[in-house]
Amino acid sequence: KYIAYLAMTIPKYESDRQRVMLYTRSISTKKELCPYWDRSPELLHWASDSSMIMAEVSDNARHALVSIQVPSGSVGYLYFGDHFTSTGLTPLAGNGFIFGRDNFTVPHDVWVALYPGQAPYRVTAFNDDTLSQISMVVPDELFYPGDNDEIVQAWFFKPDGWKAGVKYPLILYM
After folding, report:
1. Given 65, 75, 91, 159, which residue has the most CB atoms within 10 angstroms?
2. What are the two backbone dihedrals, phi and then psi, of residue 172, each rounded to the nearest 5 degrees?
3. Residue 15: which residues within 8 A CB-CB, separation 6 or more?
């Protein structure tokens, strides 16, 4: 019935955001599915019942999984949590999907999420033995004013064994 794809408003203008477009095959028309949404999805995946599109999107230095209802274009977050990346988002028969997930302190594992509104759960634990033997540094999230007082977001990783009042070298990576 539909074909969903990503497009930019201005062709070849790479700083434009990706927009979710919906092509209705029966009447050969296309429209932007959620024109007022200010995020730029990276990947689109149809739910198994074709009632929604699942999209992967960066949002405030986090990787979110969202649902976009078809044909209304209403957007809702399926999962938004700590900083993580996801790979291989695959719809499951029924209501859910499977994906790979990692974050600053946990290597890649396979997760399952059922919707609506259920928290994802991890189905593999490949690195638990190794992680139990090491200390991972948890980053602090910082916000500061940038050019034109725009808010800039950053992550600060303290050295392992950090102690207040001790001077440490700083690496600024931009």
Report:
1. 65
2. -105, 115
3. none
- DSSP code of 39? -
Burial group, residue 134, by CB count within 10 angstroms (0-12, 13-18, 19+): exposed
For 122-150, the pLDDT digits (tens) are: 999 988 999 999 888 888 888 889 999 98
Q: pTM, whole model, 2 decimals?
A: 0.73
Phi/psi for 156 (5° steps) reads -120, 120
Amino acid at 20: V
pLDDT in tens, 32-91: 999 998 888 988 888 878 888 988 888 777 778 888 999 999 998 877 665 556 667 787
Strand partners for 114: 96
Amino acid at 107: P
6 to 50, 56, 93: CA distances (angstroms): 17, 12, 24
Separation between Cα atoms, residue 108 and residue 150, nearest integer Å: 33
Structural element, H or E, at residue 131: helix 128-131
Among candidates 48, 151, 42, which has minimal Cα distance to 91? 48
First to last CA, the chain: 44
Find out whether 1 and 24 touch, Cβ atoms under 8 Å. Answer: yes
